[in-house]
C-alpha cells in the first residue's frame, strides 16, 4: 500500500512485508527500484518536477526519515515505522544469503565496495556476492558489461541521491538485475569509514540529531524538517 505525503508516494509496509514483496518480484523477474524518502527529498521534489517524477515512478518508496512518520501521523495515515535505506539493504542481504540470491555492489571510492563486501561475508555467511565495482570508472558500458556478466539478482548503487537513482533509471533496461536500490553512503558504513548514530538514537528516530551534533554545518539541511511539517499541517487543513 502507498500513502501520499505532499505529492510523493510512500510505502506503508514494514521491513518484513517489504522483504516478502521484493523477493516475490525477484521470482517473477519484475524489475523494481527502491528509493528512500525523507523530508528533504520531498521538499526538493516540490521545486523539481524531474525529481518528483523519479520518486513517484519507483516501485518502492521507503519512509526513511522520522519526519515522514510524523507527517503520516498528522494526516492520520498508515505509516507507523521508519524503513531506513541502510537497514533495508542489510535485511535484503540477510534474506539473499538465506534464499541464495546474489548481489552486486557498485559505487564508492576505490576499495570501499571491496571492504563492504568483506563485511557482508562476515555478517551473512554464504552470501553470494556476484561482483563489485567502484564508482570512479568513467566507461559506463564497461560497468554495465561487468554487472551483466556477473548476473546478480540485486544491485546496490552507492553514488548519493538522486544521482544513483538517475543512473539506475537510465540504464536498468539494459541491466540484468531485478532489484535496484540506491544506498548512498551505506558502503562506507559497512567498510567502517563512517559511523552510524548509536542504537539509542536510531531507535527513537534521532539519527538526524546525532549527525547534526557531529556536523553542525548540516543545520541548513536540517531546517527542511520544520518547514516540511508545517507544510504537511497546512496541506492537511486544506484537505
UniProtKB/TrEMBL annotation:
Single GO molecular function: N-acetylglucosaminyldiphosphoundecaprenol N-acetyl-beta-D-mannosaminyltransferase activity
Known pathway: Cell wall biogenesis; teichoic acid biosynthesis
InterPro entries in the cross-refs: TagA_TarA (IPR034714), WecG_TagA_CpsF (IPR004629)
Record keywords, A-Z: Cell wall biogenesis/degradation, Glycosyltransferase, Teichoic acid biosynthesis, Transferase
Annotated catalysed reactions: UDP-N-acetyl-alpha-D-mannosamine + N-acetyl-alpha-D-glucosaminyl-di-trans,octa-cis-undecaprenyl diphosphate = N-acetyl-beta-D-mannosaminyl-(1->4)-N-acetyl-alpha-D-glucosaminyl di-trans,octa-cis-undecaprenyl diphosphate + UDP + H(+)
Example GO biological process: cell wall organization
Stretches of the chain forming a coiled coil according to its record: none
UniProt EC number: 2.4.1.187
Keyword DNA repair: no
Role of this protein: Catalyzes the conversion of GlcNAc-PP-undecaprenol into ManNAc-GlcNAc-PP-undecaprenol, the first committed lipid intermediate in the de novo synthesis of teichoic acid.
Family statement: Belongs to the glycosyltransferase 26 family. TagA/TarA subfamily.
Protein name from the UniProt record: N-acetylglucosaminyldiphosphoundecaprenol N-acetyl-beta-D-mannosaminyltransferase
Biological source species: Ureibacillus thermosphaericus
Lineage: Bacteria, Bacillati, Bacillota, Bacilli, Bacillales
